[in-house]
Amino acid sequence: MASINSHSEFSFFDDVCQFFDHAAQFTSHDQGLLEQIKACNSVYRFCFPLRRGNKMETIYAWRVEHSHHKSPTKGGIRYSEMVNEDEVMALAALMTYKCAIVNVPFGGAKGGISINTKNYSVSELETITRRYTTELAKKNFIGPGIDVPAPDYGTGEREMSWIADTYLTLNPGQLDALGSVTGKPLSLSGIDGRRTATGRGVAIAVRECVSIEEDMKAIGLTAGLEGKRVIVQGLGNVGYNSAKVLEEFGATIVGICEFDGALYNEGGLDIDAIIEHRKEVGTILGFKGATKEFKNSAEGLEQPCDILVPAALENQITEENVGRIQAMIIAEGANGPTTPAAEKIFTEKGGIIIPDMYCNAGGVTVSYFEWLKNLSHVAFGRMDKRYEETANLNIVNMVEAVTGVTLTSQQRSVIVKGASELELVNSGLEDTMIRSYHEIHKVYKANPKIDTLRTAAFVLAIDKIAVSYQSMGIWP
Ligand code: NAD
Q1: Domain at 12-190: CATH architecture
Q2: What integer best gives the mean pLDDT of the chain?
Q3: Where exactly are the structural domains of the chain?
Q4: Does the reported pTM lie above 0.85?
């Protein structure tokens, strides 16, 4: 059982602060302002009892609001026995920088409960989630204009719907109550495309990165995703969806690493077949479509590939194993998978790291869309889809009449069709990821002393947050 002060030697928050301090030297802000941006504003740690049969267990939990330079604050909730205060603080801080980078108007936050979900029944998990939400509500740590949780490692739509229902119960008649949490199922005012958003965002980030010919040439690769070999760590929400969309973009998934082992096939792995296999036998091991199998999952990261997508947990690529990583691009689907020391070694040998605070920002981007949908109480596309289709049809009819050309019914429907909610969401996500990559890349290229894309991303985030403080009149 975890205790409130359970800290390992590794400090994730120190790592984030180290990256921050390194980037801060490339900005011209006052030390006091930098200190305020870096600090965690509110750290709420609490415990509550859970009855299990005739025994009682203490559940340890946290919610950290890192920055209130914008409201509400926003960030996922993690269920893992490894959760501790340092980790939640680090993840909350990353949320602040992430939101700034992709221009999502939220401050950063994160929550966590120190439990291994495999040890609890569904009804116990529901009790824990509802009690956690009640504790947040008691201290004003949740609400559509205060702090808005979302899924993270170990949580998903099911937990978000328990949170929404508890918040609704505690706030009867509050019109915007469903905006108190995102990542909800569609049937409970969620948004189409949220489930796949983080992974889709990772894939778009990678596609943008490999589209720059000059950068690819420098690391001995050709431009474009076609035929690029990818290894993915973590076959959960982020890993699975990253793999699927990278495949859709032309890449080949050659490796999958899970907590219980890793699979490899130079010719490509069938991701859905691996999922089916895991459902049947309870492990990815023993999958027939793999040519190599590793009981030690970490070995899977070190196999031949062009791109590595760590999408499990922090502290996976360290000084110890980075020298054995064969990929030249690391796309951080997870938060904090690469330590500062490992990043230094990897980038000094020429490798590119697409940093977490940008790479996995697709989730919060689409969460922002969901929050907007909840506040406006109308699904995207509902008001204008038919109007758009009628207008497009009028144009097609007019062009046909003027030119004498008759389109096939398939050509007609492609032109006439109005956008669905999913299409609008994916288009907004794609635009955000593309624009943000090039913004970061521009900062990176503008100053030869800025050593990595991560440093550039931090510089960009710090500058944007500083502007918020200035516009609030808190800083001249
Ligand atoms: P998830 O719980 O859906 O999946 C995580 C997967 O990683 C699980 O399948 C788990 O078995 C596997 N795993 C655990 N330890 C592992 C190990 N040592 N090696 C290989 N695999 C391992 O979680 P998720 O939502 O996909 O989150 C993964 C990461 O992405 C986290 O760092 C999270 O903070 C980050 N993230 C998630 C979202 C989101 O929208 N869910 C958004 C941004 C960032």
Answers
A1: 3-Layer(aba) Sandwich (3.40)
A2: 96
A3: 12-190, 196-359, 384-418
A4: yes
